[in-house]
Each structure stands twice: as structure tokens, then as C-alpha cells.
Design goal:
Elements lengths: L1 H33 L22 H17 L1 H23 L8 H19 L4 H19 L7 H23 L9 E3 L9 E4 L2 E4 L3 E5 L3 H8 L9 E7 L6 E7 L3 E6 H6 L4 E7 L4 H5 L3 H15 L18 H11 L9 E2 L3 H10 L5 E2 L11 E7 L2 H22 L11 H16 L12 H32 L5 H19 L1
Helix pairs in contact: 1-14, 2-4, 3-4, 3-5, 4-5, 4-6, 5-6, 7-13, 10-11, 12-13, 13-15, 13-16, 14-15, 15-16
């Protein structure tokens, strides 16, 4: 009987093993299916365009040397020269404003030279920074007025605008970052533009319904959005201001990667990490606004109502022609287009094959699109104000430098690889997120982003964080050794070194 009993026990064990083996086999099969890698997304051809490149490393080194000389000379001795340069710059701006110019006009090249020549002297004498900011603000106004007559999709036009507007801002910010703490106010008022629409006071600036907010987030992907362009820029996000005419309550309509188009209060908008914010306003003399001064408010009100009526998913493809899904820039462009104003007179292009491959891995399908940074150059819009805190501004520059270094790797053929073992987990997370999205909630994988895209984003974020941490250490050492903060070109050099070290660590 014991033998029989023993046999019975062993038989029961086999039965239990079989019962356990079936679910295990099914689970293994499910993992195998979920582990099948996705085919790499197609990347369109570059289209014959060439991304902008300064190719002026010697000039940047000369500017840094001039800054060191200026520090040694002293502000009292430099005062006559600084004054003469400002006077010459004002004369050049007056000459440029006095007649129609083409993008290749010599006076515009002289204005660019003056802006860069002033930079190292002002950086050494921070009490002149407000005057320098005023010069850059006047420069932008003159150039944007001139560009109303230019072909905004011409490479010559885009190069000139970028060199003057992005270049002058970069020069001003390098001076700001060398100033003592508290010496530079965060708010820059850039001149008001008349508006008949309802308004609200925000951080000391009167914001009108229909105004557009450009900002820069603190996430690594925000830096990628800002820099991932034929004309690398400073902004990663676009939002549209709506002010209720009766209550005076201001809201922001914006597209979030995680939850699509949503309406936020201005306090909630500002509570998210913002490394910089710029306020843009449609010119009052545009034909559409001359006929209907309330046009910007009507555009914003329509976007506000649409966001409340239905769920509008985020558009990872960046297809600004299809408004069933909206990415952040498209929130503003679609609203104004419906009111008869076409924003982004100069469309954005992503021509670098490596960058396009990375973005395609996140779901981007349109590489002629509307990038946040490029809206600043639209001559239909005035810059009203800009907030730049010196501490967050430095982090902005560090993040940009890290992305620039990483994109050099992309152009060399590096891909955003992710651990294939995580793919089943990501796909289950995607399924769970799909269910939450149907219930009106947000899941771990954003709507519209594939499981593989989420893993690529995770890998990009991890790599960026590792390089950034090393750059901050190297930048601190640079400051101790030299007595001043590393300018942007030096940050890029540090980021290249940190990226090489991160690559060696992975190897």
C-alpha cells in the first residue's frame, strides 16, 4: 500500500506539474510574442536642405579671449570703447530701419558684427547689460520689420534671421551668465503691441487673449525639441492664452504629450518647469486684425471651446495639416488658421538624417512642420516680453549642449537602442495605458506613443542625464580654474568629452 500510495503521490505530482506547465508555457509564449521587435520606422529623405551651421569655432575662441582681456582691462578703461560701440550700433539700426533692405544687405552684417563685438565687453561690465538687452531688443524689432518683405522660406532669409535674432540673444545670454547673482532682472520688456482683446496681468506683464507663449521645459526631450531643427533654437513648447471677457480669468490652451490638448490656469502653466518663457502677440496692423481687432480672442476662444468639447489626442507625427490630433505648435496654428491667419510663414525642416531617424523612433512622420523655436521669426508676431532666470538659463544651456553632442553621435550613425528585454513590459504598459485613456486617465505610456517609442525615450533620458551630470561637474571645474562660467561653445566641448566617457562606460 505504501508503494501504491507512493505511486499515487508521484502521479499527482506529475498532474500538478502539467497544470503548472500550461500557464507557464502560455506566459512564455506571450513573452515571446511581446518580445518581437518592431521594424524600424521609415525615415524620409532629407529633401536637399542643409541644416544651418555656424562653423566659426575660431571666432568663439576669439570672443572668449576678448572677454578675458576685458576683465583684465577693467570697466573704467573700457567705458569709452563700449559707449562708442553702442553709438555705432544705434546708427546702424537707424540706417537699417530707414529703408527697405534685402537679407544680404551689408548693413545687416555690420549689425551682427557689432552685437558680437559688444558681448565680451558687456560680459566683463555687467552694469551695461540692460543697455545691451535694449540694443538686442531694438535689433529684433528692426529685423522683423524688414523681414515682412522677405521670402520666409528662402534659405538666405532664414540664415539672416537666425544669425541676427538667435545670435544676438545668444550673445546677450552669455553676458547675463557672467553677471553676479541678482544683477540681471528675469523679466525683459520688449515693447508693447496694441490689442483690443481681453487682458490679464501676469508676473508684471499685461497678457492679452490670443497671445502665444513660447517656453522651454526642463525635460531632456524638451532640449531635443528645441535643438532638433535645421535652425537649433531655445523653445520646446507653444501655448495659447485665452482670457474670459466677463471674468477676466486667464487660461492656457496647450497640448501635452501625456494627455493631449488641455486647458490650464496660468498658475498651473507656470508651475511646470519653465527654463524660459516668451510672449508673442499678433501685429495690430495685420489685414485680418485691421478688419477684426478681436480676431486673436476669437481664435483663442474657439481653441478653448474645442478643448472642452472633446478629447483631442497629442499628435506625435507632427502633421500640422490634420487637426484631429494636435501637437503643441498646432494648437496655435490651427486656431489662427481657422480665423484666417497663417502662422509659421517659414516652415520648419528637419533635414539631418541622424536626427530624423531618432525622431522617427518617437513617432514623428512629418519633417516639414512647425517647430516652437521657429515661431519667434514669424514677422506677423511681435515679441512683448521674455522671462529668463540666470540659474535656469545656465541649465538650459547645459541641456542644449548635451543634446548637441548627442546629435553629433546620431549623425555618425548611433541609434537610440533600448534593452529588448523591456519590450514586453512596455507593451503591457501600453495596453494598460490604452485602458486608462478610455477612462479619461493618463497611463505610463503616453497616448500616441508606441511601446518601442517609450523605451527609446527612456534610453534618451537616461543617457542625457548621465552626460549632463558629468558636464555639470566639468563646468564647475572650468569655473574654478578660469574664474568665469563656461560659455556655450565650451559647454559643447565639455559635453563631447562627457559623451565619450559615457560611451566608454557603456562599452
Amino acid at each position: 500500500m505504501r508503494w501504491v500510495a507512493g505511486m499515487t503521490t508521484r502521479g499527482g505530482g506529475r498532474a500538478r506539474w502539467r497544470r503548472a506547465a500550461v500557464p507557464a508555457a502560455l506566459a512564455a509564449a506571450l513573452v515571446a510574442v511581446l518580445s518581437v521587435p518592431c521594424p524600424e520606422p521609415p525615415v524620409p529623405p532629407a529633401g536637399g536642405r542643409t541644416p544651418f551651421a555656424w562653423r566659426q569655432d575660431e571666432r568663439w575662441q576669439a570672443i572668449e579671449a576678448a572677454f578675458r582681456d576685458a576683465r583684465a582691462t577693467g570697466c573704467r578703461s573700457l567705458a569709452p570703447r563700449i559707449g562708442a560701440e553702442f553709438a555705432a550700433g544705434d546708427r546702424l539700426l537707424a540706417a537699417a530701419a530707414g529703408r527697405p533692405l534685402e537679407p544680404d544687405a551689408p548693413v545687416l552684417g555690420e549689425i551682427e558684427r557689432t552685437a558680437f563685438d559688444l558681448g565680451p565687453m558687456v560680459a566683463a561690465c555687467p552694469d551695461r547689460i540692460p543697455e545691451y538687452v535694449g540694443f538686442a531688443t531694438a535689433l529684433r524689432s528692426v529685423v522683423k520689420d524688414q523681414s515682412r518683405r522677405w521670402d520666409m522660406n528662402s534659405p538666405a532669409t532664414r540664415d539672416r534671421l537666425y544669425r541676427l535674432l538667435y545670435g544676438s540673444r545668444a550673445a546677450v545670454e552669455e553676458a547675463m551668465l557672467q553677471a553676479p547673482a541678482g544683477a540681471v532682472p528675469a523679466l525683459t520688456r520688449c515693447g508693447d503691441e496694441p490689442s483690443a482683446t481681453p487682458a490679464a496681468e501676469v508676473l508684471g506683464v499685461r497678457i492679452h487673449s490670443g497671445d502665444i507663449l513660447l517656453s522651454r521645459g526642463g525635460a531632456p526631450t524638451s532640449a531635443l525639441i528645441a535643438r532638433g531643427n535645421d535652425y537649433p533654437g531655445n523653445f520646446s513648447h507653444v501655448a495659447l492664452v485665452y482670457v474670459d471677457a466677463r471674468s477676466g480669468q486667464a487660461s492656457v490652451v496647450e497640448a501635452h504629450i501625456e494627455r493631449g490638448v488641455a486647458v490650464s490656469s496660468l498658475s498651473d502653466y507656470l508651475r511646470d518647469v519653465k527654463l524660459r518663457v516668451m510672449v508673442l502677440r499678433a501685429r495690430a496692423d495685420l489685414p485680418g486684425l485691421a478688419a477684426d481687432p478681436m480676431l486673436p480672442h476669437e481664435a483663442a476662444a474657439a481653441a478653448w471651446r474645442a478643448a472642452g468639447r472633446r478629447h483631442i489626442p497629442y499628435d506625435f507625427a507632427m502633421d500640422f495639416h490634420d487637426h484631429s490630433r494636435l501637437f503643441c505648435s498646432e494648437v496655435a496654428s490651427a486656431a489662427y488658421a481657422n480665423a484666417g491667419v497663417t502662422l509659421w510663414m517659414g516652415l520648419s525642416h528637419i533635414s539631418s538624417p541622424g536626427l530624423a531617424a531618432w525622431l522617427a523612433g518617437f513617432g514623428v512622420r512629418r519633417f516639414e512642420t512647425q517647430e516652437p523655436s521657429d515661431l519667434e521669426y514669424d514677422p506677423q508676431l511681435r515679441v512683448v516680453a521674455e522671462w529668463r532666470d540666470p540659474q535656469t538659463l545656465f541649465l538650459d544651456h547645459v541641456d542644449n549642449a548635451v543634446v548637441d553632442a548627442m546629435l553629433e553621435g546620431a549623425e555618425a550613425g548611433e541609434s537610440l537602442r533600448y534593452p529588448i528585454a523591456w519590450l514586453p513590459v512596455a507593451r503591457l504598459g501600453k495596453a494598460y495605458s490604452w485602458f486608462l485613456n478610455r477612462m479619461g486617465a493618463v497611463g505610463p505610456v503616453p497616448e500616441g506613443l508606441s511601446a518601442a517609442g517609450a523605451l527609446r525615450n527612456r534610453e534618451f533620458t537616461r543617457t542625457h542625464a548621465a552626460i549632463r551630470a558629468r558636464v555639470l561637474l566639468l563646468a564647475a571645474e572650468f569655473a574654478r580654474r578660469n574664474g568665469y562660467r563656461a560659455p556655450y561653445w565650451e559647454l559643447v566641448v565639455l559635453a563631447r568629452a562627457a559623451r565619450a566617457q559615457a560611451g566608454e562606460g557603456r562599452g
